[in-house]
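This week, look over our next protein:
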Amino acid sequence: MAHKMKLLVVGGAGYIGSHMVRMLLDDGHEVVTLDNLSTGHRDAVQGGDFVLGDLADCVLLDNLFAGHRFDGVLHFASFIQVGESVREPARYYRNNVANTLNLLDAMVKHGVGAMIFSSSAAVFGEPQYVPVDESHARAPINPYGASKLMVEQILADYGRAYGLKSICLRYFNAAGADPEGNLGERHDPETHLIPLVLQVAAGRRPFITVFGRDYETPDGTCIRDYVHVNDLCRAHFLALENLWGGGESSAFNLGNGQGFSVRQVVDAAIKVSGKDIPVVYAERRAGDPARLVADSARARKILGWSPQFLSLEKIIGHAWLWERKLAGAANGS
C-alpha cells in the first residue's frame, strides 16, 4: 500500500482479529485495538495501542474517534456461535447489530469513511447450489446469520445516505493459525472442528464427535471450505486497498474453493500429529448442509486475492503447532 494508515481494529483480541493486528503492524501501519475481552485475550494483541472497551459505550467511541484520525475500521467484534444465537437471540442482535450501529454512527460523525466488515457464509442459509457465489440468495436460518445480513444491509444504506464505504467479507470456515505458532484459536467453548480434533490428538479431549455419516458426499460426512486465517487477513488488507484506491462498496465470498469432508479433516490431523484420534458418530445436526463451499472468483478478480495455504495438511499443521503450545501450557510444561 502506498501510504501507511492508522486503523482501528474492533475485536482485535480475538482469533481472526489478532492475526489481522499482527499483519497490519508487520506491514508498518499504526493500529489501535478496541476489545472488551469477553471472548478475546489481551496477550493475543502483539503490538500497537490497546483500548479496553465495548461498542455499547457511545461515549468511549466518541472519545476514541475524537482522539485519533483513523483511515479505516476493521470489524471483528461479533458473537459467532450459531447454537447460542438460537438460544439467546437478544444477545446477538444487541451486540452484532445495535453495537455495530454505535460504531458506524461514530465513524460518520468523525468522518471516517472506510469499513471492512467480517461477515459470514451464514447469510446464505441452506445452499441452493455449490459452490456459493455472491449472487446466491441470502436467506439466513439462525439469528447469527440474520444479524450479519442486517449489518450488510445497514452498511449499504449508510453508504447511500452518508457516503460510508464498506466491504463485507463472507468467510466460510476460518482455520489454521500463525505459521510460527505465536497465535491461534482459543475459543471457550471451542466449537470449530479443526481445533477440537487437535485437542483430541493432544490428549485434552477424549474423542471427536462427528455429526452424521449418511450425507450425499463421498464418505458420508459433511464437506466444508476451510480457509487459512492469514489468507482471510490478507483479503481484509486488499479490501482496504481497494476502497482507498477508489473502489466501490461491495461484498465478497472467501474460501479456498475446495471442500474437505469431516473425515478428511480427521485423517489429515492423524497424519500431521501422528496421534490416534478416536471418533464417535452421532445423529445429524439440524441445519447442517451436506456441502458448503465458496466460489471466491470475484474476490480473486476484483481484489487480486488468492489464498496461499490451500493444503489441508498445511492448515492443520499450523493449527497443530499452536495446539501443542496450548496443551503444554495446560499441562504446566
